[in-house]
Amino acid sequence: MKTPLSSSRWMLTCLIAGALATSALAPMARADDVKDGKAALAANRLDDAMQSFERAASQGLAAGRAGAGRVYLRRRQLDKALDAFQIAQKMDAGLAEAHWGQGEVLKRLDKCAEAVPFLEKAVDLDRKFPEAQLSLGECLIAIKQLDRASEAYSVGLKWGPRWTPRFLVGLGGVETARDSLRAAAIYFTRAREQAPSDPDVRRALGDFYFGRGTWALAALEYQAAVEIDSSDAELHYGLGQALFYDKRYNEALDEYRIAVRQSPEFAAGQLALGNILYLSGAADPRRYAEARVPLEAYVKLAPDDPRGLSALGRTLYYLRERDAAIEMMTKASQLGEKSKDMYTVLGRAFADKREWQKAIEAFERGEPGPKEALIVAQILSFTGQPLRADSVYQAIIARDSTSGDARFALNELGKMKFAAKDWSGALGLFQRRIALDPRNGEAYYYSGLSYKQMDQLGEAINALRQAAALDSARADRHFWLGVLLDQQKDVPGATVAFARAVALDSTSKLMGKAYAQLGYYALLDKNWEGAAGQLERAAALDPQDKQSLVWLGQAYQNSGNRSKALETYRRVLAIDPAQPDALRGVKAVSGGAPSPSKGGGQ
């Protein structure tokens, strides 16, 4: 029979055993979470991996927090990864993975000098930590400590068939940095022979060929790596880059699309996709709208990278969002962007806004093509720098005198000489333009005006007839033809020309002169009402034209409308108190003298 004492001892023993069992299960549960997280990470199930690592971390396990850092690394969220690894180090200063993680983040940020101490600490804490050893070697290459890098990689050659090929790749990288390309190729080839199915080895060989500029060979190695691991966005990006430089643009575009679809936060992929779409916009403008999406994504991921701002700004310009484009490109310039294409596009944007000085400054930093050179020459002409403009136009013509740009330059250069009253010089250029393109109405137009200034009216009329025929919808062509026909006393021909001019343009001040001439011809025909109608339009377009008002007063006077005539003559005298026709008109209307039968002299 059990005594009360013996029964109590038995219960106490059970309680102690249960407590010990429970305390033993807790670390096992936490360890299982870490194990599950690593398995999920290896399978690229990042959400599952994060959940497992967070459970372990919440129970105080530093490896769980470091595991979360690995997930952030995989997602390229480097700030969050660094925070996680730093917390893991605080939880367990002896955890090699925490030191490796901080070094890995710094390495990816191109801060290898800062990364090396963390990586050295990691390999000191764990003498067989392949990832840390590989990263250490990579950073030692970056800071030009090649002998130490070789030593770091050589250590890993002893770690068996799984890791040896990776360290052979590292040694190949050392030899590449030494420009010992033959030795490097030997290491890379050995690595590929030992691990033909390791995507990292094939990637490394692709990187080697890429660095040498042998794009086709690089593409073959990247393609092999992608076939082994098609889930790696960086592999698709690397393949896309090799294809891009090998001028296989459609294939490159496909790879970039895959990269950003697999990893939307992969900034380099977004930039590459946006860039290739932007470049193809020259052939297919619809591509600019497509380019905008990845470029905006890149700018969000890397807001201070001038490359993204530059590419987005140029894209926006071709999408006709000029102000937003200028803002983006200006910020890129402030951040140090060197792209000549950007400054060329920025120059065009400023030219569109008539900000001439800013346009010139941008073009000077760019690489203007023939189209931009024409813009530069026009700006120089607008801003009173004819000699510089002349030089640019002459250079365009000298480059290829038969090109469309050269033909345009001939016209612009001719107009500059015309404005400078060099009539014969202008005429010579316009005749060259006509020889290249006999259907250019502008060249005939200015040729006609040049002949007019040189008092060669027959040649002037012939040239202006041709200009009016070629540019039949341009009112000024018909107007000046009418002026010259009027000088030749060809009233019927002038009437047709002026009528055509006002039919095309009834609102400009120049057309006021055409209406005035038509009114004058009506006065000559004693069509007082018709004359008044034409001259009223002339006076409305140019209220200060004394001659139109005098003729209008005469039309009113001849039609018997004395009050209107008197009012109109007084308008003339308000402009010019000594105008003789108006003075005679006032006297005649006021004194009751008979109306004149036709207008005063022209």
UniProtKB/TrEMBL annotation:
It comes from Eiseniibacteriota bacterium. TPR repeats lie at residues 233-266, 407-440, 441-474, 512-545, 546-579. This is Tetratricopeptide repeat protein. Gene3D superfamilies: Tetratricopeptide repeat domain. It comes from the Bacteria. InterPro entries: TPR-like_helical_dom_sf (IPR011990), TPR_rpt (IPR019734). Keywords: Signal, TPR repeat. Residues 1-26 form the signal peptide.
